[in-house]
Design a protein that fits this description.
The protein is mainly alpha-helical and 152 residues long. The protein has nine helices and no strands. The radius of gyration is 28 Å and the shape is elongated.
Amino acid sequence: MQLWTESARTGGTSDLLIDGLTQVLLARLLDKAGALRKPQPILPLSPAELARIDALVEHRMGQRLTVEDLARALDMPRWTFADAFKTTTGDTPHSYVTAKRVEKACEFLRLGDMPLAEIAYATGFASQSHMTDTFRRVMGTTPGKWRTEVRG
């Protein structure tokens, strides 16, 4: 009502008051619109979706793999996927992929005599030292020591 009354008046100060009242009205409308919008629940990934992610990680083990790549595989926005993935697995997509890479490295170390640099490349690590640092953080030992302990 105040906006209506002020719009009927003439004079310089009235225009300024109308602008202020318009901003207040817009702010209240936006606030009400936001209050009506309920946050969407984060739904977990289905077993089939998680299996598709596992297959993609396995297929692209030696390649760069981003959260966007994983989200695209399920036709989801990046943040929706990341939230759903965390809800489902309790882990971030990056940590999950890293764990899969270390798991695959363990398989190579246990089953053959492949050089560490080749294992690093085959499992998608940037270098042998990157694999060694990550392996030590995850497994508590270096790949070379782990190979010796497992075989001996």
